[in-house]
Write a structure and sequence with these properties.
Number of strands: 6
Structural class: mainly alpha
Number of helices: 18
Largest sheet: 4 strands, antiparallel
Radius of gyration: 22 Å
Mean pLDDT: 90
Order of helices and strands: HHHHHHHHEHHEHHEHEEEHHHHH
Helix content: 40-55%
Distance between the termini: 41 Å
Length: 416
């Protein structure tokens, strides 16, 4: 999700969109018991704060009377997968064959609209589709938590309450303006909503009515959602016609610059002995770029430019931005190789969603009650994995990786 208008505050230190929370491993949470009395007292104190000066008494009463806190969201503050998962697990789940195929279909379906959006905002349609795919799986996973309850809770409990109070006020402003119907203002635990997961304050500054129906509907209107995303990237400094970057190959023993924010021209990188990942020389028209090494010099390497930085501004995680960049590259061409040329520095790569579903099915065959195989590695699945890892003499960490899947394939129906 874009941060609170990037020009205000970095969101990714706090937030994660529903597609990321659900497609990437679900987190173990133990919800704390929250005091209704304390919550009501907190809300009463907030009413007269500067953030809520534009909220009418009628709106305030309508949406806060009898509002109850949701303790289940507090443990999620420190469990964001783009910061807690290895890069190979994170990217494997977000950029797989299914999402690329869905992305290409969505790209073709909405290409006329995407071209119109590109004409107005200058953003490559494939980048917009990449954001859409990572943020909500092309509108399939937008989150079902009522924003008023989530943001009200985070305004009174947990860390960064001051930030969430601004978002709480913005959500009430959206309702007061009639931009989004109350029953549609649902989203992630942290308050991001819609098909491309805008925070309420970002919505107020950035959302556009692209389909011309008089509403900025990032929930129900694909054109509005995609155009609003392009507008955000445009305002973040997206440069029309420039690539986000490219995968590169480092020379043996490389010890030069490795900071994404330290930009150099192509001549500098050529002098460092860096080539394209396929071994060809760097393109002479490459804009100023920085070197991104997600897992150090032994893993995939990328030269990334200003447009990668604008993707990063949507949610300040390099893994997140890389997932969108890679998905956009695959959506925009017919290359069927999903991974990078240089493999991740691990002997146990991550699983795609299809492989996670297979793993869950194999666990079910062993008698584990983990619910319907959905490709989402939640608490029950991890408990089952830990049990099997212990039985098989593997490190017990509850992680779903290629070694665990291979072990289950070798004994598909062993009893536990």
């Amino acid at each position: 999700m874009p941060n609170a208008y990037r020009l205000t505050l970095t969101l990714a230190c706090l937030l994660i969109a529903p597609c990321l929370t659900s497609v990437v491993q679900a987190q173990d949470t133990t919800p704390p018991a929250l005091s209704q009395t304390e919550f009501s007292q907190c809300l009463a104190g907030l009413r007269h704060g500067d953030n809520f000066a534009r909220i009418s008494d009628g709106t305030w009463k309508q949406y806060t009377t009898n509002l109850a806190p949701d303790g289940s969201i507090l443990p999620l503050l420190d469990k964001q997968p783009e910061f807690t998962l290895p890069a190979w697990d994170y990217i494997a789940m977000l950029v797989d064959q299914e999402r690329v195929a869905d992305g290409r279909a969505a790209y073709q379906q909405w290409l006329p609209v995407l071209r119109q959006i590109q004409s107005r905002y200058g953003v490559d349609p494939a980048i917009v589709v990449g954001v859409w795919g990572v943020e909500s799986n092309f509108g399939k996973i937008t989150g079902g938590r009522p924003l008023v309850q989530s943001l009200g809770t985070l305004s009174c409990f947990g860390r960064r309450q001051a930030y969430f109070r601004g978002e709480f006020a913005a959500a009430l402003q959206i309702l007061q303006n009639g931009d989004i119907a109350p029953d549609k203002l649902n989203g992630s635990w942290a308050g991001a909503f819609g098909q491309t997961q805008f925070m309420p304050s970002t919505f107020l500054h950035t959302a556009v009515d692209f389909d011309g129906d008089g509403h900025r509907d990032v929930v129900g209107s694909v054109p509005d959602a995609l155009a609003s995303t392009a507008n955000f990237l445009h305002q973040a400094g997206y440069r029309t016609g420039e690539p986000w970057g490219l995968e590169v190959k480092l020379p043996a023993g490389y010890a030069g610059s490795s900071a994404r924010k330290s930009k150099h021209d192509v001549a500098y990188w050529i002098a460092q002995g860096i080539k394209q990942a396929n071994g060809k020389p760097l393109p002479p028209n490459l804009p100023d770029t920085g070197l991104l090494l997600p897992t150090g010099t032994q893993g995939p390497a990328f030269l990334t430019g200003k447009n990668f930085d604008t993707i990063y501004s949507y949610n300040a995680s390099e893994n997140y931005a890389l997932a969108i960049a890679q998905l956009s590259t695959l959506v925009g061409n017919d290359n069927d190789h999903i991974g990078f040329v240089t493999p991740w520095p691990t002997d146990d790569p991550g699983l795609s969603r299809a492989e996670n579903r297979e793993l869950q099915t194999l666990l079910q065959a062993r008698g584990y009650d983990i619910g319907a195989p959905d490709g989402l590695i939640g608490t029950k699945t991890r408990v089952a994995i830990r049990t099997e890892q212990g039985r098989l003499g593997m490190p017990v960490d509850g992680r779903a990786g290629q070694k665990m899947l291979a072990a289950l394939r070798a004994q598909p129906s062993a009893a536990h």
